[in-house]
Design brief:
- The protein has two domains: about 400 residues, Aminopeptidase, CATH 3.40.630; about 110 residues, Alpha-Beta Plaits (2-Layer Sandwich), CATH 3.30.70.360.
- It has 14 helices and 18 strands.
- An eight-stranded mixed sheet has the order 1-2-4-3-5-16-6-15. Strands 10-12-8-13 form a four-stranded antiparallel sheet.
- The protein is elongated and about 85 Å long.
- One of its GO terms (molecular function) is hydrolase activity.
């Protein structure tokens, strides 16, 4: 059995003969208290903690379970500190500085192998044992994490590491994505000498995923130059903890913002017969647009058209001159996009003309569809089938959007989802946020990334790299993935814990009582 414990790291002294040169005993840390001491931003991570973890990991020899405890507990602590200091898109200067320092002092990547990209992003290379300090002529696999937070106010008032930047919050889990990739980097660099001489791993820390989009600026800044394959993941709170959801082809949608301006003729509310009422025209347009997807898009295709904003008028007794309607279109193919936008324009023009008004349509397409490549997706599925409990394509494609699509337009790769819901698990997990928070969907004001995902994502990244390069960096015993088993799943589908219902979202963080032990998944024998 193996579990990654948040509350403590086991004290273990080791003999010279078994593990080589002696090391200091493992640290003993109360992370619950540590997370309450949120330093000001820009902050420095706990240097003593990182030095101890780095010393424990070492550079060679068999990886001990307690070493993984140290690494993933430190990663969870870092994630929570990052959570407390969120920065929005293209303003991630403090986050960038922190990650750069971690990659140099903690992971051990030379400063010369790290560069800024797209302003506040970072590109870092871990090279194989070959000569030379560049990736030129090497096979390069890229791994990506997004960095930015949302311009939202966090509702977790009882959270010890709640956002200290009011109006900005990590409510999509990018703090956890960064922590996962940092842990991955530490494990990869520890065994960099085992990488083939003609191979390298590139770490992409990307700004502004939430908008206006940082992937394309990174591509324009040559982050994909020399890359052969690219992989990334997103936590997904509605999927059970540890499940891997992935498929080839489209997995996320192409979003388009639309704006319709209806121009009529204003007048007094008591005399509508001498006005051209844009409010009435807009109402007919909104209703008519509901038929676009159901009647114009083939049933085999997924699409969404939602009118989400209507603005017009200033006082209750005056018919305004104009009304603005805004909304979003989500599609998975250029053909469907053309069908929807053609119908939208025709309906708007027809409805406006029938009431003697004028209308203009403005379309603002955003990120392309995220479309996974077949070979790379099959490789991820094979890794998942060997190392995790459930691999599924359920829930895919999603109608949300992700600018990871720009990376996949440049090079083949795969974007996958790791479940974080603990709704059906007994008690509390070792590293994770409380269950009521880990079950909130992304962009919910009470969302908090489930730290149990960090070791799962990090080890999956390692196994994907091994699979694609045809190498073994860690044995299965050294690097097991901690996953819930059937014994951990309760029969109650409503998320009841053994002691009663879970607290409401946003409630103060309860102390763990009787945490579950996540069993490490041993690979299936072929």
């Amino acid at each position: 059995m193996h579990a990654y414990g948040l509350g403590r790291i086991r004290n273990r002294s080791r003999s010279h003969s078994e593990f080589g040169a002696p090391r200091r005993n493992k640290l003993s840390i109360n992370f619950a208290m540590q997370c309450r001491r949120v330093p000001p931003f820009p902050f420095q991570p706990d240097g003593a903690l990182l030095a101890e973890v780095k010393s424990a990991l070492g550079t060679d020899g068999k990886l001990d379970p307690a070493d993984l405890d140290a690494l993933f507990c430190a990663s969870a602590s870092l994630r929570r500190q990052i959570h407390a200091h969120p920065e929005p898109g293209f303003e991630e200067k403090g986050t960038q500085a922190l990650i750069r320092e971690l990659l140099i002092s903690f992971v051990g990547i030379p400063a010369s192998a790290i560069r800024s990209c797209a302003g506040t992003g970072l590109v870092a290379d871990i090279l194989g044992k070959g000569t030379g300090k560049s990736t030129e002529g090497r096979r390069v696999i890229a791994l990506r994490a997004d960095m930015d937070a949302l311009r939202m106010t966090e509702g977790n008032n009882g959270l010890p590491y709640r956002s200290s930047n009011e109006g900005v919050a990590h409510l999509c889990g990018h703090d956890g994505h960064m922590a996962s990739l940092i842990a991955t980097a530490a494990l990869l660099n520890r065994r960099a000498h085992l990488l083939p001489s003609d191979c390298a791993i590139r770490l992409l820390f990307q700004p502004a995923e939430e908008g206006p989009g940082g992937a394309k600026p990174m591509v324009d800044d040559k982050c994909m130059e020399g890359v052969d394959e690219v992989y990334g993941y997103h936590n997904w709170p509605s999927f059970p903890l540890g499940q891997l959801h992935v498929k080839a082809g489209a997995v996320m949608a192409h979003p388009t913002k639309f704006e319709i301006v209806v121009e009529g003729k204003g007048g007094h509310g008591s005399q509508p017969h001498v006005a051209v009422d844009p409010v009435l025209v807009s109402a007919h347009i909104v209703v008519a647009l509901q038929s676009v997807v159901s009647r114009a898009v083939p049933s085999k295709d997924q699409a969404v058209l939602s009118c989400t904003m209507i603005h017009g008028g200033e006082v209750n007794n005056v018919i305004p001159d104009s009304v603005t309607i805004c909304g979003t279109i989500r599609d998975l193919s250029p053909t469907v996009y053309t069908t929807i936008t053609d119908r939208l324009k025709a309906i708007v023009a027809g409805q406006a003309a029938s009431w003697g008004a004028k209308a203009t349509v403005h379309l603002h397409p955003a990120y392309p569809c995220v479309e996974n490549h077949v070979e790379q997706t099959e490789a991820v599925i094979a890794v998942g089938q060997k190392y995790v409990r459930v691999v599924s394509d359920e829930g895919l494609p999603m109608m949300g959007a992700e600018d990871f699509s720009y990376f996949l337009h440049e090079k083949p790769g795969c974007f996958f989802f790791i479940g974080g819901s603990e709704a059906t698990l007994r008690g509390w997990s070792q590293l994770g946020a409380p269950g009521q928070r880990s079950n909130c969907m992304c962009h919910n004001t009470a969302f908090d990334f489930n730290d149990n995902i960090i070791p799962i994502a990090s080890i999956l990244f390692i196994r994907i790299v091994e699979s694609r390069l045809g190498i073994s960096l860690y044995s299965d015993d050294e690097l097991p993935i901690p996953l819930p088993t059937d014994e951990d799943v309760c029969d109650n589908p409503d998320g009841m814990s053994e002691s009663g219902p879970l607290p409401e979202a946003g409630a103060p963080t309860p102390q763990p009582t009787g945490p579950i032990v996540l069993k490490s998944k041993r690979p299936r024998k072929e």
